[in-house]
Amino acid sequence: MSAGDSERAPFRTDKSGIAYGSDDGTRQANPSKAINIFERTNGDGDRFTDTLPPLPIPGHGTRDAECGDDVPRFCADCGHVSHVGSTCYSWECPRCWKGADRRRAKAVVSKLEALRRAKESKRPGWNGWKFHHLVLSPPDGFAVDSEDALGRTVDLIKEVLSELGVDTGAWFYHPWRGVDGDDRGFWKHLLPDGESQEWAETREELSYSPHFHVVALSKNVDGGHVTRAVEDATGWLIERITKGDDSNVSIYDLHDLARVVTYCLSHTGVDDGSNQYGYWGEVHNFVAEPHIEREADAAVRSVGVNTLGLPYDSVACTLERDKLVTETVEVPAEKVNLGAAHGDGAPPGDDVVEIEEEHEVRENCDGRLLDIKNAPAFLTDDDWMADAEHADDLRETWAAWRERVDEEPEERPPD
Hints:
Layout: E1 12-14, E2 17-22, E3 25-29, H1 31-42, E4 70-75, E5 81-85, H2 97-120, E6 130-137, H3 149-163, E7 169-178, H4 184-190, H5 199-203, E8 206-218, H6 225-234, E9 237-241, H7 254-266, E10 270-271, E11 274-275, E12 277-280, H8 290-307, E13 320-332, H9 333-336, E14 352-364, E15 369-371, H10 375-379, H11 382-387, H12 391-401
Helix pairs in contact: 1-3, 1-6, 2-7, 2-8, 7-8
């Protein structure tokens, strides 16, 4: 990992802080304020005994007997039915924790990207809103005075980040690091891949070293002497992860955001079935539009091949269909001039002319694949039933499955 300072246009720099411009006017990043926050919580390090919890990480529970059984899904365009292994989406399941990661990553990426676009749309051009991947590591022996040490520490981190110009984002709690170091490849190969794996066995490869990953949305993250002063005074290490020593970029684009989020979720601590991550600030209650959710889903599925070791699972129908397409082609003018007597020939003097031709091509349907629980809304839509080539297949499948589905549908045919 490498850390770098963010680009900004400082108005004034001195030993006490950095003043910089923001949408809310001038703000001051002052190391003494962050230091006071840390020291107020931890004091001299000897007064408190409530440490961050050494929680297990995903995949170290019991696999349900039905996990992996084939369940149907159908195409929202043509009605074709295909099957996929069922997923319980439990963080503790050795088979399905990866599906839980992918599902939660879609939500996190969608919310963050939707908020970024909303902020960027307020003024023409690029307004400087970007994502930053941060890591905050407490000193050895860090403790607080709270029955909820994790919650108290998260509140502390939010307060400190606000002093560094960061007011919204997502946080992820990591209780462990690899004994000999770790990277994305380390976690992908260490974590369960379908078969049960004892936590005690995995634990031998890990060292208790609690820290927090943060994906922040901000114009600036003040580093440099501010974070160095904080580290010198408190032992807290605050790093901004970049692409290398010569790069100031932290997160390039939507796919890079998806890569960071799936990685962070993959080894977040699990407490009573819940993965310990969350949002704060404006993004917490921000709702992404459906088209942004679809883009985020595609990005997460794409990067999951590398970050999670998941096969690419398309959300689009791959059934080949004959489609009628219209193309513009050039043809010799004399062929068209046969119709000149009727007023539709080529202009005089042209050697070739452009005409439109219709023909059938064989290509993938590319309709969205939906869970079988959504079938009733489509089967009761007369227009959809008339147009969908494989509507009868869906009707037969639903007849066989209806007694096994007790959830409300999430999707309906377009108006």
